Amino acid sequence: MKPKILLINPPIYDFAAYDFWLKPYGLLSVAGFLRDKANFKLFDYLDRLAPFIAKQKELQSDRWGRGRFYCEKIPNLACLEQIPRYFRRFGLPRRMFENFLTKQGPFDFALIQTTMTYWYQGVAEVIEDIRKAWPKAKIILGGNYVTLCRSHAQKLGADFLIEGTNLQPLWEYLNIKPDMQQPALWEAYEKLNVGVLKLSDGCPFNCTYCSVPKVYGKFKARGSERSLAELQLLCELGVKNIAFYDDALLFEAKKTLYPFLEEVLKRNIKVNFHSPNALNARFITKDLAELMVKAGFKTFYLGLESISLQWQKRTGSKISCDELTQAVEYLTAAGVEPTNITAYQILGHPHIDIQQLEESMHFVNGLGIRGMLADFSPIPGTPDGEYCRKYVDMDEPLFHNKTAFPIILLGFDETNRLKDLQRKLNRSLTKT
Ligand code: SF4
Q: Which atom from ligand 1 is nearest to the alpha carbon of 213?
């Protein structure tokens, strides 16, 4: 008999959360490898097309499929009480999961996706509810939190933890042989308007603030056949917006992105592509910009972080200002609206003294594109995260919170002043 497996994307406990094409892609990919070998049920607390959410007007998606999550205000945590912002639980109400468990159980296994280290309270809540309803179900955790904070995750009471990207121990634990050519299990959703693809894993750079080298290792291209099959599946399910979760989508593009997009054009597939994980502007050529636009890319997010040469060198030299300027020229010449191009800059980095953040914001604005301040989260095991031990207790993942850390480092007023400045600069673009 096939085992019955419950897949869960937990609720988020945080000051802020927004559905920026967020899908539990690791979880769905693992389930995809086991397609037809187990009976699956999915409970995604962050599914904004769930009937309970779909009725609420203020939670409607924007034209690219993004939007607000359902949330409830909850008391702030003692250790973050100096952060003057409301703390919330984002995701479907707890009672809905409790009802779901009663109706759909029992389960042999429960697979829980983890993402941000400081979201572990949502994982703990899910474990507690499963244990109460079906104590015999084996609970398995995988994802970033488990990989970056293993000893903390061990205390949550799961039966089995999967660190990093080696899934062999999981197949042995489940006693199922996977089919690694299968696409992610997107059909587990009743309704879907946003999908995710990944053409590669890892990154050739080693930026001192980033978790990718630690979690995914060196860059490795995936086979394009599987990605094309996945794209086909997403289209059959009615998906209109697809976000690439690659961390280095444009690296070795001749081997990966070019053939993929050429096939998209050949098959006349019409979807909107997005790149929420920053693209490296260094690799954008005139040809590539034209191909991306032609194949359906609608929004472009580029990683800049800082214009300071000293800061760039210290953190990994992934990009220079000239390369960003050149990429923006190629993209706009290819027909991209400048306001659909966004450059990320880190807010709250511990070396802000050499970052020239305000100058960076003005530089981006001078290119006619939008800026976005990406709040810094100190990640344990990275050089910059370890440096932050002088500011916070890095062994408590709640202190990795990206709303909290910039406020702890810079203060509430200075953080707000910089955010207001960014809003003002972006508004100036729409006026001109
Ligand atoms: S280039 Fe991007 S993904 Fe790669 S290490 Fe640097 S920040 Fe991380």
A: 5
| Domains of the chain (ranges, CATH numbers) | 4-174 (3.40.50), 193-431 (3.20.20.70)
Rounded Cα distance between 185 and 399, Å, is 33
As to burial, measured by CB atoms within 10 angstroms (0-12 exposed, 13-18 middle, 19+ buried), residue 172 is: exposed
Asked whether the beta carbons of 354 and 346 are under 8 A apart, the reply is no
Sign, CA torsion 92/98/99/100: positive
| Residue 16, amino acid | A
Convert the pLDDT of each residue in 73-117 to its tens digit: 999 888 999 999 999 999 999 999 999 999 999 999 999 999 999
Cβ of 250 closer than 6 Å to ligand 1, yes or no, is: no
Give the number of other Cβ atoms within 10 Å of residue 233's Cβ.
Answer: 18
How many Å lie between the centroid of ligand 1 and the Cα of residue 316?
A: 9
432 pLDDT tier (thresholds 50, 70, 90): low
Over residues 372-404, the pLDDT tens digits come to 999 999 999 999 999 999 999 999 999 999 999
Claim: this prediction has a pTM higher than 0.70: yes
Of 210, 279, 301, which is best to mutate to test ligand 1, by the most ligand atoms within 8 angstroms of its C-beta? Answer: 210
Taking the CA of residue 280 as reference, the ligand 1 atom at the shortest distance is 1
Verify whether ligand 1 is closer than 6 Å to residue 189 (CB atom). Answer: no
Which of 144, 198, 203 has the most ligand 1 atoms within 8 A of CB, as the residue to mutate?
A: 203
Cα–ligand 1 centroid distance for 199 (angstroms)? 16
pLDDT, tens only, 240-289: 999 999 999 999 999 999 999 999 999 999 999 999 999 999 999 999 99
> In one letter, which amino acid is 397?
P
